[in-house]
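Show me any protein, fold above all:
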Amino acid sequence: KDPINAVHTILMPISDDDVIGAELDFSILAGHNLIPMDGTGLFKMGKLSTSDPYVTVQLGGGPFKNRDDLKGKTEVRPKTLNPEWSNASFKFHLKQGEYKPDHNVLILKIFDRDRGMLDADDPMGKVRIPLRLLQSGQAVEKWYTVEPCEGCAKTTGELRVRASLSFRRALSLR
């Protein structure tokens, strides 16, 4: 028997229960036709025609509240409804027991930045990507429809996201 092939048949993942961690790699690439939140004119009281969008990212569906390493934010893209990001890549590491395929979801919330001291940034919608849709191990790049969120019942547009999920598995020497 070929000793190299013998090693490959011996070192095999045990089962789906042998996942000891996961790594989520994703990039926010662009937005298209996002909802306008800023008006025109001197006091921006005219027709709504543009926004200053940015995206916050977090992982939901698990015990992640105190995990700042599972959160992030893109840069603001001023005065556009069709933003592009070239440096909005993130990598989240999930520890053993944290990956729950039926519960984990990547949450991307879109905001319009407001510059006034008393103005809070306006929500523009959200995108939710269940991690179970990324289990193939292949990078998935697609446009996701922006959905309503708290503080923003009316939304438009899409976000283009590239994401992949890979697993760290325990190996057996059977």
User: Anything to note?
Assistant: The first helix runs from residue 3 to 10. Residues 1-14 have pLDDT under 50 and may be disordered. The longest strand covers residues 19-32. The CA atoms of residues 23 and 93 lie 5 Å apart.
